[in-house]
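Readers of this paper often ask what the protein records in our data store actually look like. The remainder of this section carries one protein's record, kept here as part of the documentation.

:::
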Amino acid sequence: MGLIFAVLIVAVLGLMAFVRLAPADAARWHVAQDGTGWAKAPWDAVLSETGGARLRLSAAAGAPGDLLVRLDGVALATPRTTRLAGSVAEGRITWVTRSALWGFPDFTTAEARDDGLYIHARLRFGREDMGVNAKRLEGWLAAL
């Protein structure tokens, strides 16, 4: 019984280490936002979807470049959030936000376009994020 318990503990710690230490490939996550999924996304409101969320801020909310500058500050003030890649000058930034207990990474990419700021938050592991990404985007929207 003790051996089974020890093996279980080692397996859980191994999974936790894998989740926390797996490299984040900027080439995979810091990419231009394609047209897929944006047709259903309303302007200036968070759209929750399986494994993530989307938010399009219209130019009426502000100049897209200015919104990106402000969003970068809001994102970096969020606990356990770091910039993975990009810059305001590039017009696209990707952040990684990790969950408190396990350190599961969620990736959020914001891209300034002529008609607004497009923000896509999504998980890396699993299929369902239990609304975490939508909740984060709603908080970021309120902070803007």
Notes: The chain has one domain: 39-143. Residues 39-143 form a domain with the TATA-Binding Protein fold (CATH 3.30.310).
